[in-house]
Structures are given as C-alpha cells and as structure tokens.
Design brief:
There is one protein chain. The protein is of the alpha/beta class. It folds into two domains: 113 residues, Aspartate Aminotransferase, domain 1, CATH 3.90.1150; 218 residues, Aspartate Aminotransferase, domain 2. The chain is built from 14 helices and twelve strands. Strands 2-8-7-6-5-3-4 form a seven-stranded mixed β-sheet, sandwiched between helices. Helix 13 runs antiparallel to helix 14. The termini are far apart. GO terms for molecular function: transaminase activity. Pathway: Lipid metabolism. Belongs to the class-II pyridoxal-phosphate-dependent aminotransferase family. BioF subfamily. It comes from Sphingobacterium oryzagri.
C-alpha cells in the first residue's frame, strides 16, 4: 500500500510541476469560452421554465428507474421518447443511455469478436478507445481524416471491420469527410459508426442527418450534455442493432435504466430547439465575428470549437494566465488529451458570448500568437 501511495504522489507531483495537474472546476465568474454549452440552453431561462413545468406535471418521474432496463427499469414514457428521437433523426431505433461515454462503451465493447478489426481515427474520443479495450477485436488507428492511410488499414484488417469517426472533432473543431469515408468503407465491406457529440444541436440533428446518411452508417451516437444543455446520450441505428445491444452489451445490461424525467427533459430540449432555430443562426453569426479577429486556427469556420495553437507550452500557459486574469475563462489542453506537441487553447463559442467579448478574446490571442 505504501509503494502504491508513493507512486501516485510522484505522478501527481509530476503533473503539478508542469502545470498540467487536472482539478475539478466549478462555475467561475468569468466569460465562458470553454464549456460545451454551445447554444446556451444550460443557462436559458425559457428552457429552464419548460423543464420545471414538465417536472411539476409529474413529480413521480423525478425518481430513479430502480432497476436495469431489461428487468423492470424501462418505463413506457422512456420508450416513447426513444421512438421520438429515432423518428426525429430518421432512424429505425434509438437507445437512451446515461452519457456519451457510456454509449461508446456499450457499442464498441460488444459488436465485434476476436479476429475482427476496429479502425479508429487517431483523434476520436477517449471513450471509443476505452470501449475497444472491452472488446476482443484488434484495434487499429489511422491518421486523422487521412483516406489513403485508412484504405491501407482496410486492406490489412482481418475479419469483420468497423470504422469509427467523429463528425465534428472535439479537440480540433474540424469535420470528417463522411461521404468519402463511407464510400471507402463500403468498398472493403466495412461498417461505419459516427460520434456526433459536438455536432448534434449545433447542426440540427447532426451531420449524418443533414447529409441523409442514416442508412449508410451502422450507428450514430448523439449526446445531450453539450448543445442540448442536459446530460445523457442516444445510440441510433436499426432495430436489429438495438436488439443486439440489449442482449450482448454489458454496459447497457448491467446498469440502472434512465429516470423518466431524464428522458422527457431530452424530448423537451428537442422541442425547444425546434421552436428556436435562431439559436443556431446566432451562433454562426458570432463565429463569423470570431473569424474576423485574424487569429490562427485550423478549425472549420462554422465549428463552435476553435483550436488555437501557440509557439510552445510556456507561451500557451502564459497566454491562458493573462486571459484568466482579465476575466476570460479559457482552458488549455495538454497531453494525454492531445498528442505531445499539439497543446492548444480549445476555445468554445456560445450564443451568449457578446461581440465585445469576442473582440477582447481576439486581442489577447493575437498578442500571444505573434
């Protein structure tokens, strides 16, 4: 026990020495440029009023499901919300789960067997990698958005093959070339799974839905802890897929079902976004303002995630400190979240940010990027 504690202390001290020690962060009285609340729903008074009305109509829905969804923990009201989500996204079936992390564990842990292959974009979310650790399939990584390298991996892959990508990447703020990836995967008989955590809500029901690709992907994951201002996630796909997951996915089978209120709040969010299309338009107007600041970023102009690089880690830390001291809540990203040498500020834009706040952010970033 003593040696274990000593090793933990040494590792934590190492992170503290390099200013990369992670700590829990609450709400700070600064301008938010780091949360995933892209459309501002988590702080929207009108949305909160709708949620309160839902809770008041059925207080019993606030309590837990009290069991696994395959025993007694799946209410009819939750099933109705899943049907609504599936219909809204143009899919046959949907399964609600507690988080996007859990959704990816549920998917990647059980779909393939020993002798099969999972091909991951190197910048896909950590939850996908962790899901693969629970699988007996062989995991391969291909270079980010590199179709040539993906094809090389497809040629070598054994057994049944899955290709997994994000539609909008959480750290780089760029998009996957979904149509090209699907075409390439089809050529080699591989299936595609798309994580839409950062696209859903900002781009309607997500990029897969916008492009009409539902029938061409095996599964889509959408999450509700970002643009929807809530928590949880949905796995979208065929009825066969969801039936298989309910029978063979341990993260779904051996966990308590969602409370009714959790599901009805998600349905409420869909309705609120449908009634307020101006939110997504306002975000794009602010992103256009951000683009006018002359900062160096490799992210897509329409992405709410803007990846800002600096000359080195020392410069990144110094710039972050100055911005924090001047009331701008920004967050630096270090390894292992990103590769060594790829440290950056991950700037998140929101509908509640003002033009003057964006101008101030641009002023500080330009000063430190030079």
């Amino acid at each position: 026990m003593e040696s274990l504690v000593s090793s933990w202390t040494k590792e934590l001290d190492g992170r503290a020495a390099t200013a990369t020690l992670r700590q829990q962060q609450g709400t700070r009285n600064k301008v938010d440029f780091c949360s995933n609340d892209y459309l501002g729903l988590a702080r929207n008074d009108a949305f909160q009023a709708r949620l309160l009305a839902v809770a008041q109509q059925e207080p019993a829905a606030l309590t837990g499901a009290s069991g696994s969804r395959i025993i007694r923990g799946h209410a009819d009201a939750v099933a109705e919300v899943e049907q609504h989500i599936a219909y809204t996204h143009g899919n046959a079936s949907a399964l609600l789960v507690g988080s996007g992390y859990l959704a990816n564990l549920a998917l990647f842990s059980c779909l393939l067997k020993r002798g099969d292959s999972i091909l991951l974009d190197e910048k896909i979310h950590r939850s996908v990698h962790d899901g693969c650790k629970l699988s007996m399939a062989t995991k391969w990584k291909f270079r980010h958005n590199d179709l040539t390298h993906l094809e090389s991996c497809l040629r070598k892959a054994k057994g049944r093959v899955l290709v997994a990508v994000e539609s909008l990447y959480s750290m780089d703020g760029d998009f996957a070339p979904l149509e090209d990836i699907i075409t390439l995967a089809n050529r080699y008989g591989a299936a595609v799974i798309v994580d839409e955590a950062h696209a859903a809500g900002v781009f309607g029901c997500g990029v897969v839905h916008q492009k009409g690709l539902q029938e061409q992907v095996l599964a889509t994951v959408v999450t509700y802890g970002k643009a929807f201002g809530l928590a949880g996630a949905a796995i979208l796909g065929s009825k066969l897929l969801t039936d298989y997951l309910l029978n063979f996915s341990a993260p779904l089978i051996y966990t308590t079902g969602l409370p009714i209120y959790h599901a009805t709040a998600i349905r409420t969010a869909y309705g609120f976004l449908a009634d307020n299309p101006s939110l997504a338009l306002s975000l794009q107007n602010l992103l256009a303002r951000f683009a006018q600041q002359g900062m160096k970023t490799t992210s897509a102009a329409v992405s709410p995630i803007q990846s800002v690089r600096f000359s080195d880690s020392t410069c990144l830390l110094a710039a972050t400190a100055v911005m924090q001291q001047n009331g701008l809540d920004v967050y630096p990203i270090f390894p292992p979240t990103v590769a060594v040498g790829a440290e950056r500020l991950r700037i998140c834009m929101h509908t509640f940010n003002t033009p003057s706040e964006i101008d101030l952010l641009g002023k500080y970033i330009r000063a430190w990027q030079q």
